[in-house]
Automatic annotation (TrEMBL):
It is found in: Virion. Pfam families: Phage_capsid (PF05065). NCBIfam families: major_cap_HK97. InterPro entries: Phage_capsid (IPR024455), Phage_capsid-like_C (IPR054612). This is Phage major capsid protein. Residues 124-392 form the Phage capsid-like C-terminal domain. It comes from Paracoccus onubensis.
């Protein structure tokens, strides 16, 4: 087809030369004609390019404005159930082709998937509330008692240890040729069983896949729930299956060795520390309810000065050189003084873990999952005399 056009153009030029042979130089006239046509063509091309550039700039600016509607405020809103107009607009492949094609002027038209309404499934979804990424969780107890004790990992379902119940104490000076005294030492084999602490929650599979932050939250909350239950068991478990046998039920009862009259709370802690020392088990820590430690913190001398330090100063929670562990797992008004590392050992059979499974009831067919957190451990209180437990005296009326 291009060849035919070239032939026709050449024939037309020949006729033009013949018809204008008496009108000046035909080649000069032809050159002038072609020059005028070329100038006109260049002007048209320039006009088209300017319009194309304007359309491309307008399209790009419009796309950015639509896109910004879904991100205003700098937060990730998540899925609203359907795409907004702006999301549909900028995601359309024809828009990209239109913006890149500068060879000709034109327009880009796209049909949105729904009519304009205030509903969340149409353009109304473009006006969405700002969603903060942070999730406000409920307050929870900070576990602390485990850190006071010795911890050993084991592989069996039970733990055996040898405990000495009687010391050889008959040693004495012996006269020449006299019969030497015989001492007795009694050892016993003690077995403690590992116990499982666990809890689980149901959740939809879609939530776990679409909200990684929620999954992390569940993982953290479940693990913290285990730690809180563990702390209560370590302190106060009654030993009846499936409970652990805790520190408080096996501790030695507090009896004031100095028989002080009208002791303060600080006096009581001092004499409890003394009781441990008299049992040859020097204490290395104190466990209190936060309210009781604050009551001690507020005690003043005769000059009105705080005994444990000024309110504006940072005071480490210590009494008589020993660290004070504050936990709401300890009953208010009670205290536990001990040589904790030597008194008891935690045996970890399963470290805390979180498992997700569809193998529960009809969860598989409902696209549900069970999220299980569990641990398995044993607790051995080897030296009850190394723990002193008691209550603060009632304040004077």
């Amino acid at each position: 087809m291009q060849g035919n056009q070239d032939i026709r153009a050449a024939a037309a030029a020949r006729r033009h030369l013949i018809e204008t042979k008496d009108v000046g130089d035909p080649f000069e006239a032809l050159s002038k004609k072609f020059g005028q046509h070329a100038d006109l063509t260049l002007d048209k091309i320039k006009e088209v390019e300017e319009k194309t550039a304007e359309n491309a700039a307008f399209t790009q600016d419009l796309a950015q404005q639509f896109s910004s509607l879904g991100r205003r405020g700098g937060f990730d809103f998540g899925s609203s159930g359907s795409e907004t107009w702006g999301e549909q607009f900028v995601a359309n492949n024809q828009l990209k082709s239109f913006a890149e094609d500068r060879s000709r002027p034109g327009r880009f038209r796209m049909e949105v998937k729904a009519t304009l309404t205030n509903g969340p499934d149409s353009a109304g979804a473009m006006v969405r509330p700002t969603r903060d990424r942070d999730i406000t969780t409920m307050s929870r107890q900070q576990p602390t008692i485990r850190d006071l004790l010795s911890v050993v990992e084991v592989s069996g379902n039970s733990v055996e240890y040898v405990n000495q119940t009687q010391r050889p104490t008959a040693a004495a000076p012996v006269a020449e040729t006299a019969l030497k005294p015989e001492s007795a030492m009694v050892l016993e084999l003690v077995t403690v069983q590992t116990r499982v602490i666990a809890h689980w929650i149901p959740a939809s599979r879609q939530i776990l896949e679409d909200a990684p932050q929620l999954r992390d939250l569940i993982d953290t909350e479940l693990r913290d729930g285990l730690r809180e239950a563990e702390e209560l068991q370590i302190l106060a478990g009654d030993g009846v299956s499936p409970n652990l046998h805790g520190l408080i039920p096996q501790a030695t009862a507090y009896v004031d060795p100095l028989a002080l009259a009208g002791p303060t709370q600080i006096d009581t802690i001092a004499t409890a520390i003394l009781q441990n020392s008299l049992a040859n088990e020097p204490a290395d820590g104190v466990v209190l309810h936060p309210s009781d430690f604050m009551a001690m913190r507020l005690l003043k001398d005769n000059d009105g000065k705080y005994i444990l330090g000024a309110p504006g100063s940072e005071v480490a929670p210590r009494l008589f050189g020993l660290p004070v562990v504050q936990t709401t797992a300890m009953p208010k008004g009670d205290f536990l003084v001990g040589r904790f590392a030597a008194a008891a050992t935690i045996y970890d059979r399963w470290l805390p873990s979180v498992t997700v499974s569809t193998e529960h009831a009809d969860f598989f067919t409902r696209n549900m999952v069970a999220i299980l957190a569990e641990e398995r451990l044993a607790l051995a209180v080897k030296k009850p005399r190394a723990l002193t437990y008691g209550q603060f005296p009632a304040p004077a009326p």
